[in-house]
Amino acid sequence: MSTSVGVNVLRWSALGFGVFYGAYHQLSLSAADKAKAAQKDWEHKESLIRQAKQQWAKDHPSEQPKSSGGIDIAKANPKDPNADLNTILGITDN
């Protein structure tokens, strides 16, 4: 029982395609798993940071920034990129 050259080429081509598709599919699955694991790790770190901030705020209530003389200390720092110019200059809306 002899097979023709065309059938052998087709078989080998299908085998080669299957090997390359399998490798590509395995790489895409492992990349998706790595991305999911990285996202889960990031969310875990965020939750730990959030818990630590809450615990610190509970342990140190007197160290929270307070306003003095109607000017908020956080907004009165001229080197702060989020500073309010009106607060720094003492301009009110009255």
TrEMBL record:
<comment type="subunit">
    <text>F-type ATPases have 2 components, CF(1) - the catalytic core - and CF(0) - the membrane proton channel. CF(1) and CF(0) have multiple subunits.</text>
</comment>
<keyword id="KW-0375">Hydrogen ion transport</keyword>
<protein>
    <recommendedName>
        <fullName>ATP synthase F(0) complex subunit e, mitochondrial</fullName>
    </recommendedName>
</protein>
<dbReference type="Pfam" id="PF05680">
    <property type="entry name" value="ATP-synt_E"/>
</dbReference>
<dbReference type="GO" id="GO:0015078">
    <property type="term" value="F:proton transmembrane transporter activity"/>
</dbReference>
<comment type="similarity">
    <text>Belongs to the ATPase e subunit family.</text>
</comment>
<keyword id="KW-0813">Transport</keyword>
<keyword id="KW-0066">ATP synthesis</keyword>
<dbReference type="InterPro" id="IPR008386">
    <property type="entry name" value="ATP_synth_F0_esu_mt"/>
</dbReference>
<dbReference type="GO" id="GO:0045259">
    <property type="term" value="C:proton-transporting ATP synthase complex"/>
</dbReference>
<feature type="region of interest" description="Disordered">
    <location>
        <begin position="43"/>
        <end position="94"/>
    </location>
</feature>
<keyword id="KW-0472">Membrane</keyword>
<keyword id="KW-0138">CF(0)</keyword>
<keyword id="KW-0999">Mitochondrion inner membrane</keyword>
<keyword id="KW-0406">Ion transport</keyword>
<dbReference type="GO" id="GO:0005743">
    <property type="term" value="C:mitochondrial inner membrane"/>
</dbReference>
<comment type="function">
    <text>Subunit e, of the mitochondrial membrane ATP synthase complex (F(1)F(0) ATP synthase or Complex V) that produces ATP from ADP in the presence of a proton gradient across the membrane which is generated by electron transport complexes of the respiratory chain. ATP synthase complex consist of a soluble F(1) head domain - the catalytic core - and a membrane F(1) domain - the membrane proton channel. These two domains are linked by a central stalk rotating inside the F(1) region and a stationary peripheral stalk.</text>
</comment>
<keyword id="KW-0496">Mitochondrion</keyword>
<dbReference type="GO" id="GO:0015986">
    <property type="term" value="P:proton motive force-driven ATP synthesis"/>
</dbReference>
